[in-house]
Design brief:
heterotrimer; A mainly alpha (about 325); B alpha/beta (about 260); C mainly alpha (about 290); A: about 325 residues; mainly alpha; ABC transporter involved in vitamin B12 uptake, BtuC; about 75% helix; C: about 290 residues; two-stranded antiparallel ribbon; 11 helices
């Protein structure tokens, strides 16, 4: 049953990625789509942390920041190819998550929230203050990875928007596949078990701190890769990527769509990414509407949008 | 040799000695019951033995190894498994997933194998699945395997917890009031199940309020009152012990078979 | 020595504001187990409403009173409209609700008022007072005095009045409080109103020094939250000590190490505290029952 759910989720996701461009009115929408996919990727990571393992983080933008600035800095200072820089960023994020995760994850609830929040703020502070290296609050340019010209040499001409749409969509699919595999695996079960009852999980032999740490590290890598992709496709990056508000956005996307499911995460990411795009005409109302959406969805659909809608549809069919 | 040795075990909560200087032993295939009035310290004793509370005094040995203060998951690896008085079910997981969680030690592998869904992981998982279905069948929950555990009745959850505890293939099983809240039929089923498990050679340590059940199946009974062991012995001896009758069963007590709860 | 005193003066001033924000967190947390991330917005509203009422010609004292009352009403509305309907929701949902509410309040403020920085005159002028080689603004004394007064009044409220004891009982055990006849719903309303009023009061006191704009709430909420955690969530004493400690740490770091990283040091200290004492300085230890 769980296996079937996995393939349905992946099929729906691939269909969306492939078919959506058919209804795009202009090339600009490839850019927006790519942004949705990148956000969805980091949110899928949070589904593992929050949805599977039941741990909170208000600092995951810190890992996105590490990934993003790895892609901005490593090619320039270490001469790494941007794609290798992405891998380096992910490795640094994983190491960082493993290092701080051990003490942090002993904390619960709001205490865990403030500890992760503190970590995120520290990262964004370093990025903002080390002007010589990062350009400070104004941000810095990210060099082009040259993948598009590679495709061009192979005789395949794509626009920047189209390329990043495809690339981000592909990475999101891989990320979703990994997360869905994990759900129905011994590790995923252990994470979900400790979410339900840490004491019971320990008595069946689950090493609770270790499994929490795994969820934390894996979700950090997702956030980092998403941050790298964001830097690469924008060609520019500012410390906002690591900011507190970005962490909040990520968690909101995860919970908005329905934190247990990968499809829900994508849905939540899509809504929260598109909202400002729709509201650009009424830029002044953006915060007002965003706040309202967050409050209303959580009150009326505490399970998140997708599960609540699914439940309602099921109820109607009965 | 004893499987479990409890030696002078004690713990205090804010000056109150919840358990004080309790000793006993459990051999393979033996059913040992811990009884006593509410608040006698039975569950606290269980929590110390299973590594959830750190004992203040005394020691716990498992198969001759001192395991005092060892983490619950390490104890599980050594063959100790338990259920809880207040259910500790993974409410949002399916019934099958609950039991599969009990197979964690035998199905776990590298996290990479899990992420990539490698064949080795799938083989281990399907073996665990087969075992879990057998256990669910044994507690008559196989038809509810795909239901969310939180939707089950109380009695069913009690059986699910036992199935999950058995998934560890334990050498010793701690059952904390397995029959509480169960009707007569369910109690009898649990009765049979415990006897079967003991016959397989599993050591059983039982906390139970149903005296009929306790007297019928126990080889050995330990009586606690106010955290202290006031008597121990076989059911016949214990039920005639004046200290037990006075402290726990009350002076009007006559025959164990007529006393409930 | 003079420098140290100077840093401590500014640290205590800022710390007093953190303490008031932390106190707001504490009151709401005790009544409802919710950490209200919109607490910083109450401070902002206190400042903003006073500014605009004052500019419209309302006398300063009246403008401040008005600001505190309106903010308190908003606090009650927040409880009634967003927190009570979500009773029993998981922590992460409650975090999103109150952060959502804070974004909503910011958005509305920016629409109703504007995005500029504002201030109104200090209560007793802007001439610094010399103390042992250091200087302190008269308004700083107002902030410190005001904060201490709030804590004193609250202490009396909790220890001497029946309502105060009902609040403490609710914090201790909600169900038991209901059983002995305490209207815990009303306690929640009271706590939200009180927290909002205290926040707004802090905003009124500090605006002449730090100025106010629609977006000052985020940082204040984070610092107040951190202070509350440092002191131990749920104890007014912890809020006071945590707030003052955090303010002084920041000021000393800014003075002696680096002004850019003053906030970083604060968070590092807090992380350290949480690792060594997960319940904060004065928080109660809890044992998990199974």
């Amino acid at each position: 049953m769980a296996g079937r759910r996995k393939w349905i989720s992946l099929a729906v996701l691939s269909a969306l990625i492939v078919l959506l461009p058919l209804v795009f009115p202009s090339g600009y929408y490839y850019r927006v789509g790519a942004l949705v996919f990148v956000n969805a990727l980091s949110v899928v990571g949070l589904v593992i942390l929050i949805g599977y393992a039941g741990q909170i983080s208000l600092g995951h933008a810190g890992f996105a920041g590490i990934g993003a600035y790895a892609c901005a800095l490593a090619p320039e200072h270490l001469g790494l190819h941007p794609l290798l820089a992405l891998v380096l960023g992910a490795a640094i994020s994983a190491a960082m998550a493993a290092l701080i995760g051990r003490p942090i994850l002993r904390l619960k609830g709001y205490y865990l929230a403030v500890a992760t929040l503190g970590f995120g703020i520290l990262v964004s502070m370093v990025l903002t203050n080390e002007r010589a290296l990062t350009g400070g609050p104004d941000g810095m340019v990210v060099s082009d990875p040259g993948l598009r010209s590679l495709l061009r040499d192979m005789g395949w001409r794509v626009s920047g928007g189209e390329f990043w749409y495809g690339a981000s969509g592909f990475v999101l699919l891989v990320g979703a596949w990994l997360a869905l595999n994990l759900y129905d695996s011994p590790t995923g079960r252990a994470m979900r078990a400790l979410h339900g009852s840490e004491v019971a999980a320990a008595t069946v032999g689950i090493d609770v701190p270790r499994q929490k740490l795994r969820a934390f590290v894996i979700s950090a890598v997702y956030a980092s890769v998403a941050g790298s992709l964001l830097a690469l496709q924008n060609g520019y990056i500012t410390p906002d990527v690591a900011g507190f508000m970005h962490s909040v956005e990520m968690v909101t996307m995860a919970v908005l769509g329905g934190v247990g499911s990968v499809l829900g995460a994508t849905f939540g990411a899509a809504i929260l990414t598109l909202l400002p795009q729709v509201l650009t005409v009424f830029a002044e109302y953006e915060q007002l509407v965003l706040g309202l959406v967050m409050v209303l969805v959580m009150i009326f659909m505490p399970q998140g949008l997708l599960p609540s809608i699914a439940q309602r549809l099921k109820g109607r069919n009965k | 040799m004893s499987l479990l040795d409890v030696n002078g075990l004690g713990i205090s909560f804010g000056g109150l000695k919840a358990v004080d200087d309790v000793s006993f032993a459990v051999k393979p295939g033996e059913i040992v019951s811990v009884i006593g009035p509410n608040g006698a310290g039975k569950t606290t004793l269980f929590n110390m033995i299973s590594g959830i509370y750190l004992p203040g005094r005394g020691s716990v040995s498992l198969i001759g190894t001192d395991v005092t203060g060892t983490a619950p998951n390490r104890l599980a690896e050594m063959g100790l498994s338990r259920t809880f008085q207040n259910l500790q079910i993974f409410q949002e997981m399916t019934v099958l997933d609950n039991v599969l969680a009990g197979y964690h030690l035998s199905e776990r592998g590298s996290v990479l194998a899990d992420l990539l869904s490698l064949p080795g992981m799938r083989r281990r998982a399907s073996q665990a699945r087969a075992g879990a279905m057998k256990l669910l069948n044994r507690v008559r929950l196989d038809e509810k395997a795909d239901e969310i555990a939180g939707n089950l009745s109380y009695g069913a959850l009690k059986r699910l917890e036992i199935a999950r505890a058995l998934a560890l293939d334990p050498k010793i099983l701690l059952l904390d009031e397995p029959a509480a809240g169960c009707n007569a039929v369910e109690t009898e089923e649990i009765d049979h199940l415990i006897a079967e498990l003991a016959a397989q050679g599993i050591a059983i340590l039982l906390v139970e309020h149903d005296m009929k059940l306790v007297m019928r199946i126990s080889n050995h009974i330990v009586v606690l009152d106010h955290g202290q062991k006031i008597a121990e012995g076989d059911p016949a001896t214990v039920s005639r012990d004046p200290a037990v009758i006075a402290a726990y069963l009350g002076t009007e007590y006559k025959e164990p078979a007529h006393v409930d709860g | 020595m003079d420098a140290l005193l100077q840093f401590l003066f500014s640290g205590l001033t800022v710390g007093a504001v953190y303490a008031l924000v932390a106190l707001g967190f504490t009151l709401i947390y005790n009544a409802s187990d919710v950490v209200n991330f919109a607490q910083g917005e109450f401070v902002m509203l206190g400042g903003m409403i006073t500014v605009f009422a004052y500019q419209a010609g309302v006398p300063l004292l009246l403008a401040a009173t008005l600001a505190i009352l309106i903010t308190a009403a908003l606090g009650v509305a927040l409880n009634k409209l967003a927190i009570e309907p979500a009773r029993g929701a998981p922590v992460v949902s409650l975090i999103i609700i109150t952060i959502g509410a804070s974004i909503l309040i910011r958005g509305a403020t920016q629409l109703i008022f504007d995005k500029q920085l504002h201030r109104f005159p200090a209560f007793s002028g802007d001439d610094p007072i010399r103390v042992m080689g250091a200087t302190i603004l008269p308004q700083s004394l107002w902030v410190l005095g005001g904060a201490l007064a709030v804590f004193a009044v609250l202490w009396v409220f909790f220890s001497r009045t029946l309502t105060g004891k009902a609040v403490l009982a609710t914090a201790n055990n909600r169900v038991a409080a209901q059983l002995v006849g305490i209207n815990t719903g009303w306690i929640m309303t009271l706590s939200f109103g009180l927290s909002a009023a205290i926040g707004a009061f802090a905003g009124v006191l500090v605006t002449p020094i730090t100025l106010v704009s629609y977006d000052v709430g985020v940082t204040l909420a984070l610092k107040g939250f951190a202070a509350a955690m440092l002191g131990g969530m749920g104890t007014p004493k912890g809020a006071l000590v945590g707030g003052l400690l955090l303010g002084c740490l920041e000021a000393l770091t800014a003075g002696y190490l680096s002004s850019q990283y003053k906030e970083a040091v604060a968070f590092i200290v807090i992380l350290g505290t949480l690792f060594v004492m997960p319940q904060g300085l004065f928080g109660a230890k809890t044992t998990e029952r199974v």
